[in-house]
Write a structure and sequence with these properties.
alpha+beta; 6-stranded antiparallel beta sheet; 43 helices; 24 strands; 39% helix; 11% strand; elongated; guanyl-nucleotide exchange factor activity; guanine-nucleotide releasing factor; DENN domain-containing protein 5A; membrane; cDENN_dom
Length: 1321
Amino acid sequence: MRSPVSGREGAAAGSPGRFPPFSRLARAAALSAGSDAEEKRSGCSAGQPGAPLPHHGSGGRGDRARPGGALCQYIQASKARDGASPFISSTTEGENFEQTPLRRTFKSKVLARYPENVEWNPFDQDAVGMLCMPKGLAFKTQADPREPQFHAFIITREDGSRTFGFALTFYEEVTSKQICSAMQTLYHMHNAEYDVLHTPVADGGDPCGMEDGEGTPGTKLQRFNSYDISRDTLYVSKCICLITPMSFMKACRSVLEQLHQAVTSPQPPPLPLESYIYNVLYEVPLPPPGRSLKFSGVYGPIICQRPSTNELPLFDFPVKEVFELLGVENVFQLFTCALLEFQILLYSQHYQRLMTVAETITALMFPFQWQHVYVPILPASLLHFLDAPVPYLMGLHSNGLDDRSKLELPQEANLCFVDVDNHFIELPEDLPQFPNKLEFVQEVSEILMAFGIPPEGNLHCSESASKLKRLRASDLVSDKKNGNIAGSPLHSYELLKENETIARLQALVKRTGVSLEKLEVREDSSSNNKDLKVQCDEEELRIYQLNIQIREVFANRFTQMFADYEVFVIQPSQDKESWFTNREQMQNFDKASFLSDQPEPYLPFLSRFLETQMFASFIDNKIMCHDDDDKDPILRVFDSRVDKIRLLNVRTPTLRTSMYQKCTTVDEAEKAIELRLAKIDHTAVHPHLLDMKIGQGKYEPGFFPKLQSDVLSTGPASNKWTKRNAPAQWRRKDRQKQHTEHLRLDNDQREKYIQEARNMGSTIRQPKLSNLSPSVIAQTNWKFVEGLLKECRNKTKRMLVEKMGREAVELGHGEVNITGVEENTLIASLCDLLERIWSHGLQVKQGKSALWSHLLHYQENRQRKLTSASLSTSGILLDSERRKSDASAAMSPLRISLIQDMRHIQNIGEIKTDVGKARAWVRLSMEKKLLSRHLKQLLSDHELTKKLYKRYAFLRCDDEKEQFLYHLLSFNAVDYFCFTNVFTTILIPYHILIVPSKKLGGSMFTANPWICISGELGETQILQIPRNVLEMTFEYQNLGKLTTVQIGHDNTGLYAKWLVEYVMVRNEITGHTYKFPCGRWLGKGMDDGSLERVLVGELLTSLPEVDERPCRTPPLQQSPSVIRRLVTISPNNKPKLNTGQIQESIGEAVNGIVKHFHKPEKERGSLTLLLCGECGLVSALEQAFQHGFKSPRLFKNVFIWDFLEKAQTYYETLEQNEVVPEENWHTRARNFCRFVTAINNTPRNIGKDGKFQMLVCLGARDHLLHHWIALLADCPITAHMYEDVALIKDHTLVNSLIRVLQTLQEFNITLETSLVKGIDI
């Protein structure tokens, strides 16, 4: 027997039979029996532990095993369970005997199935057996509750196509003496074993308790003290099941319940059971789209209806139940997780609840479809599926006793865990909010309240809430007898006012200007259609109404959000076949443009959603179906809704606003359903006597019989629904057409496409449900390994293409196509992938993040080795491992150390969780270009990897692991700032090195120097540098990418002159080193008399292997030091640029600024570099003013600022003499003088070149540069100070220069504070 995990459901087998052209409601009926060990009693089979239960519709072949031996074989086979389950049930190894025998579960099998086979739809015996009785066969006694239990299930094949099963499990008396005595023997063994292991317990109570938590604790103990063959009656589970192509859940449930009622009622039904089953299998057709159908069950009519082709697809599960169980807030969180393809695990004692929640969440996604592993009911024998390193949606049965803490799951970093029975949900970190969530929640809450369902759910609410459940708002509205309640909907709102969720909603919604007070409670539309007499009971109608209302609201959200998606679909230029072959290389949707049109609050969710498999498949589908005939039904419905919205929308279709628009299609959709239910379109043939031999069809009451397979194996030779001569191939295509309501399979090409195309992240679309064998596990895991590798290759490629594409833009090639939000999304999805890889094949799970857990083990191992060895290396690698930075760097290189990087993350107080730490570590390693290297080092500890991982784990597949590390190595080709830009508030140690000139008396310098560092995120205060100290480290809140350094001194002492070569600043966490070239004097009377300078920095690339710096993309600029030094020390040696070169450099500088403003705001680099860098605007204009400047006398330097001051004096004199040529000219001159005076009056000692730089920056900011150039070109001072060939004297050149500078007028230039400190204009 297996380590028991509480068993209730019997395995039922279900196999699709053949559908006639119209196709049938029920594909097949499977019969699986609890035990074949019985003597045949008019075809009835009773239960024995090794066999499944009768199961109606398609079942095992009714093989019969020898009676009592089977049970004993299971005892010996205990404990041999391979694929150690990640789920720890209440019974762990060695405790099997603690589980009383009645609590254990036994292997079930399919007993019979009808029809035996269908050539195009083979019966999957393993899958059906497992899903009918997911926990195997169960025994009970007369003391246990034995109500029949219904549940639906779904079989998803590897190509994604689906078959639905509906199973009813009930209990039958065991009549086999051998089985009863085997059970007695098991009890003796159990009690003996238990006495050995424990001190005797007064009444040998069952430690496991009951499966469904029924009964009181008192009855529990007496119930299982033992099984006494003389006193107790033994029952075994059996299951009947219908397998159908489409999910008509309500109809199938009625069929099964009526069949079960037929065998248990004292009066036999009018006809043999075979007649009813034959009728369902062969004579009840599938209702055509948009029609309803009535057929006969054993005791009463059954109605099913099917939506038309322009309505939402068929969905037959009660949405109401999901909202009652989870509440609106939890449903929304779960819905968001499903849309973003997180791993989702549902947990409940009830199989039907698992199925209802899974099917509801996937149905609400319309028009998108879940593309990954989908197993709403996970059989106990397949718990190793939870190890799957891919997105999945699975349901796990709980025995109602173990709480969440007992559940050990292989990976939880990206897991959404939903405890359905306890109204509880655990979310992955960083879950973005669904767009317009508040208004959306309110709209859904209003509908729920109209049906008397409190928005926070019903399950664990107060008593008043459960009363409310039974109290329908519409009843209140029409209840004239109740004097306290008027006929106004407002008062029914009053009743709900105590509701917490609504109160919270109201507070939040007030800001949006919507008032919840005006909440309208919809009256039942049935009351508006009094003339419509519906043919189903009222409760069923209400379920239909609520379903369609909620689904319409959800569908409307996507219709609004993606109203103009077609504009952004990139249609392939080549034919379908070649597009199909190169699918993975192709971009199919213009994500960047789509996102740039969206309101800002939508971006966190949408940027992630656009990266999902479901969105990619949706767009691929759109590309593959150009014409309407070819179009997938779901896409056709969605597109028609989108077209309608476009017609109704007054606003331009491409302009997006975040204004919430309520759903307007509810009434129409509801009316369609009511009409179908009021007027039944088709009635199927009634069940009738079949051609059976005399004596067949009898059975013993209380036992579901083995049916006559000969009469059920083939359908009628002809009836109006069937053309028997239709070739199988045609039927196959017909079946595919029916499936398109759930899948996207129209033709062979699409079938091939579904399997192969765009399979990012899952070569394994759906693992096969089959009995566990080592070879099956190995094959499944191998597929997982291949899938992970493929996903890694695709992710790295996508990230590189995006990043390099963007950097190419900065060099002027192509268009920009990545936003900060999008880059963050890509990196977050890489972190998710790494978590999935690290949790594949884990031996024992520790902590929520498998990657961080591995790193901690590694850290611990290293520290152990280090303490035992010498302490000299202190966890840092040898010097040979140091990074080489720029050749000129005098700073000692930062050592590469995996452990050190971990410590940096551990020291960040803001990061609280393991998952957060792992993500931060990945970001830091990517920014340092060490991700591949660090992971290689982590995995080089083979002993540790062996200890932590099973043999089949991805990290122990050497070839794949090598390829994986190689793919990650490609990230070193580009620069990421994914750590610096995300952790903006953390403290970072910065290391400063100042390199003075060695030749010119740096050591004699007597003044007190200071420094101030600016970056994209902030600026330090002035930091005093101790005298004669050239290297220091300080901590400061993250400054982001560094842009400028201001350096200066206080001019004290005898020798207050300082020639600084350059300054270097390094971020000690990320290792980014910036060089700020200077090459100028700081001192009165030296150079241009400056006591402080603003230096512009350049990030140095650090390559571990290469010494010289390669060409970087994009080139960051540095301070224009070299040329100026030549000017000031001997101006005549300056490289003479001709006017053409000067014009070109000004054009390039202005062009750089224009491009800067054309990028998305989050992607702009530093404007300071473009203004003051080596090829910046200041430098280019300096060259223009230097051109033709008259050579000064020997030993005296003349600066451009001297010329500007003279021009200022000239204009001020003119103004005093009131000689003003024209008004415009007057304003320009006055402005020019005001700026020059203000700069001269600044308290800063920035020198003449510093003043010129400040003037250009301010002129650019205030759009005055072109005016000033015109002014200076006409100034008489220019004639004195410039030669005739000077650029500023050539009117054509000056006019062209003015035109170029005018292009800056449209931009709002904001200057960094370091550039304009001390100026207040």
